[in-house]
Amino acid sequence: MELVYLWVEDYKNIQKQGFNFSPRFRCEYDEDTKELKIVDKEETGEFYPKNFFGDNINITAIVGENGSGKSSIFEVLSKILIVNSGLEVFNYFFVLNDGLKNICYTNNIDILNTDITIEKHIPRQLVDGKLSRGITNHNIALKKYFDVSYLNISHLERDGIIKNDYPSPDDLIKYYGIYRKNDSELYKEDSLYPTFSGFKLSQFNFFQTFAIGNLLIDDKYKKLFFELFKIKQPHSIKINYDKTKLNDIKISNTPNGDSARAIDASVPDKIDKIVEFLNKIKDNLIIESDDYKTFFTLISSVYNLETNFQLTFQTEDGKDIKLSAGEKTILFYLERIDLMLSRFEKDKCNILLFDEIELYLHPNWQKRILKIILDFIKEIGLSKKLHIIITSHSPFILSDLPKENVIFLENGKQVDVDINPFGANIHTLLSHGFFMKDGLMGEFAKSKIDDVIKYLNNDKKNTITTDKDAQNIINIIGEPIIKRELQRMLKNKMELSNKTEIDTIKDKIKLLTERLEKLELKDDK
């Protein structure tokens, strides 16, 4: 099942608006005429980027200024697809495609129970009626068709990837999936929450390291990881850990110990194995590459143990491998994508929601992020349909997407923009009015240049008072056309000033000469 179209009656700044999510279909809903038009480009012969990102993959970007409605759309999708489609207080409907011929729409608003004209454009045939052939009209439990994961920057901060704002134990339990099938009897929600009420995580930068570790123990990820960051493969990992805390965790999970905190009777045995492993390397606490898998498998088996370790990746010559915030963010994305795809059900359409995907990424990484993600998915293999929906402000990311895969937003409305971002020059994208209505220059620089212009135009209400001040600012302007024009204006002003000064001096000389002549005449008499 494919998500094709979303119509929202009233949610925050979205008022009676529809949004197209499939490049294959073009949908328009007219609330006044009660008409829903669905154009299938596959049948009309219109061009659309088919399988553009690979088999079973579609990418949709939602772009617009802050306050344009990007977050509101994500909230709607999350509330309907993740939370519960039957409990929403706002009105909406979806258009879905089952991959064959049927197009169906779901609803929770009265308007869809009235007579609706649905048009489906087919070569040599126009189907027109209350409900067209191959179209069903009913409420659908959307969870039956979709698996959705919502990934935003709060996860980066929560999981300690960017800052040391570490997740609460409750978040760890929910997000890292402690409620696994084989643990279902052991971890009961009603008994687990009180257990963690007074637990505080250590402030170690572990989670980003653990994300790397998960990649390193699998050969198919390892190659991609090192090619991606163009670094030497780690020769070893140096460990720093707190022996006391390790023992405390063991005691607290021992059945004969504090029963209120003994949540997993298997933890003591697991910690004994970890201690045994650490004793083998106690002289230097360095793990060689052959032992990565053993180490990460051991420590990941105890969920409240991970933050007890501080790990440093090292090259063969002993130098530390340090990653920027952007590199950590990318690793976080890859590790989570792998986790999410492994949990998705095969018979569903899987949706990944990335909110502000470029956050913390240097422009160089913004240029590469979509290809990195697509290459990663290709590397691990994809046997299910995947729809990646992102919000973004970045023209670098948009330049990877055809126009048909972008929802342009203004004030909560999808608008048609006369530009195709795919392969477009970044400057062209930025200079387009949709992205930058007031030009590309910083406001501070603009104000300084405006001051120079005012001075050159003899505006006395100005902070610049001398030619030298104007020249100093002109000297540091990087835009050659503006710089050249201002230099010309200053030269003219200076020449004019010089001419004026010369004329003034000549006038004074003339006056003095005339006065001198008069005085000489008096003396002669």
From TrEMBL:
Residues 56-413 form the AAA+ ATPase domain. Keywords: ATP-binding, Nucleotide-binding. GO terms for molecular function: ATP binding; ATP hydrolysis activity. GO terms for biological process: DNA synthesis involved in DNA repair; double-strand break repair. InterPro entries: AAA+_ATPase, AAA_GajA/Old/RecF-like, P-loop_NTPase. Coiled coil: none annotated. SUPFAM superfamilies: P-loop containing nucleoside triphosphate hydrolases. This is ATP-binding protein (AAA domain).
